From TrEMBL:
It comes from the Bacteria. The chain crosses the membrane at residues 43-66, 100-124, 136-157, 169-190, 211-233, 269-290. The keyword Transmembrane applies. Pfam families: BPD_transp_1 (PF00528). Keywords: Cell membrane, Membrane, Transmembrane, Transmembrane helix, Transport. This is Sn-glycerol 3-phosphate transport system permease protein. InterPro entries: MetI-like, MetI-like_sf. Belongs to the binding-protein-dependent transport system permease family. Its main location: membrane. Residues 101-290 form the ABC transmembrane type-1 domain. It comes from Blautia caecimuris.
Amino acid sequence: MSQAENMALPIEGQISRSELLEIKNTMNTRALAKRRGRTALRLTANVLFAFVVLLPLLYAVSIAFMPSSELFTTELNILPKHPTWSNFINAFKNVPLLKFIMNSFIMAGCITIGQIISCSLAAFSFSFLEFKGKGILFMLVMATMMVPGEATIISNYLTVGKMGILDTYPVLILPYLTSAMGIFLFRQFYMTFPVSLYESAKLDGCGNLRFIVKILIPLTKSAIGAMAVYTFINAWNMYMWPLLVTGSNERRTVQIGISMLDSVDSQSITLMIAGVVMIIIPSISIFIIGQKQLIRGMFSGAVKG
């Protein structure tokens, strides 16, 4: 038998090309099915966990559209049988809710802008400038994070009382124009930049403020976004300080105004829940819009290089 005929004969136990392709397709199909199964399982777990977490919020929204007669019954009414907008309308009629919302926006907006400016300037000093006692001063700034706000609220009240600015916008804003947490966040972000960047800018005749505005701010958008979201939500939810320093509806914030909807009758429960649903919309919207910036800014300074 010739050599060509020997090559043409199939070798015993040899797998053909079509069989190999069939086996490969089978393995790919099984792997794809496993990946889809794991993805479906994770998605189902996330949906169930999100539902459990959001259940109080969803029930609050349901109560906001529920007449008071349906809330206080022997039946368990999870969804309103006769949805109504009257709770939201009466909430605006009973208290000047729009004025309270505007006051909260002014206070939270000014505090957010003020903290971004002051904290970024302080962080620049601790990151790029060299002066005696810089490490000790930074430790003292960080030590203020261990002091609870309740421990300083009386001294702050006496100070602003002597200044004669009670029941004004400045008294809501001035004590919170800076924070140790913001200084730490910006400093950790600035520490990821090489000092040679600042030295090169100085050799080119760039001043400190120009360096911050032209170079640092464009490079720190994620940190600024994280700081803005965190500060705005904290300022929007502030309760104790506005309650202490405001005495008229002209300066009260929305967190104080909501408590004015509470009374002895059962109807006030649905009114107050309707007001709560309305005032959490801005903070939830800010968080949803800026959550990527918040996460990126919080972790961007964790790894250097």
